Amino acid sequence: MSVKAFELVPAVERDLLMGDKARINIECIECCGKHLYVGTNDCFIHHFLLDEVTSAKGKLSYSSQKLLHKYLGLKKPVAELRAASALERLIVLCDGIVFLVDMVTLETVPSAAGGGAKIRGVAAFCINENPVNGDPFCVEMGILSSKRRTVQIFMVYEDRVQLVKEVGTPEQPCAVSVDGYFLCLALATQYMILNYNTGASQDLFPYNSEERRPIVKRIGREEFLLAAPGGLGMFANAEGVSQRAPVNWSESVIGAAVCFPYVVALDESFITIHSMLDQQLKQTLSFRDGHILQDFEGKVILASTKAVYVLVPLPLERQIQDLLASHRVEEALILTEGAQRNIPKDKFQILHKRILQQAGFIQFGQLQFLEASEHFRKGQLDVRELISLYPLLLPTSSSFTRCHPPLHEFADLNHLAQGDKDKVLRCKKFLISYLGEVRSTEVANGCREDVDTALLKLYAEQDHDSLLDLLASDNACLLADSIPWLEKYHKYFALGLLYHYNGQDSAALQLWIRVADGDLQDPTRSDLYEYVVDFLCSCSNLDLVWQYADWALQKDPTIGIHIFTKRPVSKDWPQLNSDDVISYLGKHVQAQLLYLEYLVLERRIQKEKFHTHLAVLYLERVTMLLSQSPIDEAQLSSARDRLQALLRESNLYRVQILLGKMENCEQLLLERATLHGKLEEHDKALHILVHKLRDFRSAEAFCIWASSCRDSAYQQQLFHLLLGVYLDGNRPGKSQAMAAVDLLNRHGEVFDAVRVLRMLPEGWSLQLLRPFLGRAVRASVHACRTSQIALGLANSENLQLLHDRLKERKKPIFVSEKKGCHLCHNTFSEPDVVCLPGGVPVHTQCVAQRVRDSPTKRLLTNSTNHT
């Protein structure tokens, strides 16, 4: 696709160059700064001064002034001119002779010896723009011989030339370009790279110089541009490798130049301009009778046979903006990145970011959101530029103003979409995605409030699931802008979260309660009541807890009580006083019961008033259920189980209070028996269980429970007491007798067999008690034998200890003045010592003092030995 990259501007008009001499033609040109030199076919050199003139509209033109012209004295055209500005000399090729001309006077420079500084038999020459010689007053030059297959390397000085190297070639060379030690040559049938220092060569590709004019052009360090077969412009480096794709130009190209990032080619009718970045044809200019195209220090100059023109590049920024205006985003980006080498770093970074941002908006307008997002990120777009396209999304307090000049052509999203609702929806979804990605990055720094508020509005409008995530996390949503937007879309739960995030918990609770009570409609959470309860559980403002707990308890006391029972127990968290809570729950009996269960059964708080209160509430619950008609057996059974479990497991409640409340209730005999057990009134308890309830299993269970954590004697006493109750009276009933037999047979190991035999009626059959008696006999025999074994082992151990003692007494204990007491560390002056276990001698007075000072220490075994 075309782009206007250059303008063709006249530099030297025909009349100024040759006047009325129609037969004079331009043969070669050279430019050095503002100085233009033109060689003609009549052996003249014309010197012009070119001045750039910029019009009020910014259009560039050239004003040329002829300074001098000079006849060289030869009757041949001036074939080639090259400036050696360091020497203030022109290197001229005319009639096969290379010689030097003064750049100011155009006089031929004589040599130091008086003759001309000339080289004869020259077909072509070029200057090495990357010289290997470090002399600043010397120019390196490569020369093709017209008669030999050689390339000669000369050093050119102010008044002389010096041959330094001559290398042969396989064919007659017809064009050459030099960079450092590397020669790029066009031979008769091929191109090649030759290192004249080492002699190494590399063939490139074939080429027929008789069919078309060869082109060898140095375009950079160790890189050349060549005219290849098939109308291709090929790039090759010093190693013979092409690192750029070729450009496809005309097969009749007669000249080429490089003005980065473009390759300019000249044929008989046109100037073609290709990009080196994407190899595409960018511009074509009509140019008749052109035969010279050269670039001089970035300035591209063309010449026909009669006039000289300058190909003026348009500023890269203008070219890029033209491409963007045509929505050619990729070309604009490629050109921008390629222009990096021609623009200062700081300026390029600013330009590059802006171009990326513009490209992003173009692709945004084309709904290419993936590409737009990538360009926005790379260009570090102020995200408010994008948000501002969406009406009402920016907060009213935002001070943002759009970039000038503008980055896009859209007034707002409605202008972009032109009434297409689907396009609007897609654009909003993209903004949601993009803001979600960048809100936590550096892109959103300094405008977090604008970003989060816009994101909240979009989430609310689109009923997006991420709205709650935004508000439940760290955010910078502006309350004043967000409230009407959330109310508009009935997002009351989300609004409550925003109130909470801004420290307005009371407002949040009021709003949520209205939703839970049905005054406001918001289907966000079906479990909003449970959420409010959980919120109050973790609320640090105790005033709010007391204020709204009543509402929660009235709605459902089993869930509402979680406000008090699920509250975090931590020193760092405000705690509620348990007594205050119980008093507060006085009008919520069920909740009060649940709270007391939490204190007593879950937290295991050891306070008599809590245990007694819970037991009384359990008892009242059971009493209430008993008074109902008909009685709900399932609820009653559950309530009695709770009461009985508490009565058995707790030791803190006031037994007498509970007994007083049960005194006239014959339906709670089992519970009364448990209370008598707590008072150690086991006879009363067993009397109730055996004679009133006739629940023999419960009687046995009572004995086991009442004797738990007690010694075996206490347990035996209880079981004997139960047996006595069974056998109470001269003639116990049959059921009691059978219960007594079962008790003995099941728990025989607990009883004293002799005592039991004394208690049993004389008329009972021993056959009934066979299991009990058999177990008793075996237990007695086992105990006897165990005692005998234990006695034998003790005797054996005693004998062993006596043996060891006697053995130790036979060993002597040595005491000398060199030995010290283990206790006082002084030496022994007398033979009287006490020997500690292990044979350690100490002073007798030290041991006595030790015993007096520490009477609770381990007793020492004293043994006085006289040495």
Helix count? 30
Mean pLDDT: 87
List unreliable stretches of 5+ residues. 858-867
Radius of gyration: 57 Å
The first-to-last residue Cα distance is 124 Å
Look at the helices and sheets and give the structural class: alpha+beta
Beta percentage is 15-25%
User: What is the tally of beta strands?
Assistant: 31
Strand line-up in the sheet with most strands: 1-28-27-26
Q: Main sheet, how many strands, which sense, barrel?
A: 4 strands, antiparallel
Structural shape = elongated
**Helical amount among residues, as a percent range?**
40-55%
Question: Which features does this protein show?
Answer:
867 residues, alpha+beta, four-stranded antiparallel sheet, 31 strands, 21% strand, VPS39/TGF_beta_rcpt-assoc_1, VPS39/TGFA1_Znf, Clathrin_H-chain/VPS_repeat, CNH domain-containing protein
Your description of this structure?
- This protein has 30 helices and 31 strands.
- A hairpin with a 3-residue loop joins strand 23 (262-266) and strand 24 (270-275).
- The protein is 41% helix and 21% strand.
- The relative contact order is 0.03.
- The chain is α+β, with helices and mostly antiparallel strands and 867 residues long.
- The chain is elongated.
Sum this structure up briefly.
With 867 residues, this protein is of the alpha+beta class.
Show the helix and strand layout:
Elements: E1 6-12, H1 14-18, E2 26-32, E3 35-40, E4 44-54, E5 60-71, E6 78-84, E7 89-94, E8 97-102, E9 119-120, E10 122-127, E11 139-145, E12 150-156, E13 161-168, E14 175-179, E15 182-186, E16 190-195, E17 201-206, E18 216-220, E19 223-228, E20 232-237, E21 247-248, E22 255-259, E23 262-266, E24 270-275, E25 281-286, E26 290-296, E27 299-304, E28 308-313, H2 316-325, H3 329-338, H4 345-365, H5 369-378, H6 383-387, H7 413-417, H8 421-438, H9 448-462, H10 466-472, H11 479-488, H12 492-501, H13 505-516, H14 528-537, H15 542-555, H16 557-560, H17 562-565, H18 578-584, H19 589-602, H20 608-627, H21 633-649, H22 655-662, H23 669-678, H24 682-692, H25 696-706, H26 712-726, H27 734-746, H28 753-759, H29 770-809, E29 833-836, E30 840-843, H30 844-853, E31 864-865
Antiparallel strand pairs: 1-28, 2-3, 3-4, 4-5, 6-7, 7-8, 8-9, 10-11, 11-12, 12-13, 14-15, 15-16, 16-17, 18-19, 19-20, 20-21, 22-23, 23-24, 24-25, 26-27, 27-28, 29-30, 29-31
Helix pairs in contact: 2-3, 2-4, 3-4, 4-5, 8-9, 9-10, 9-11, 10-12, 11-12, 12-13, 14-15, 19-20, 20-21, 20-22, 21-23, 22-23, 23-24, 24-25, 24-26, 25-26
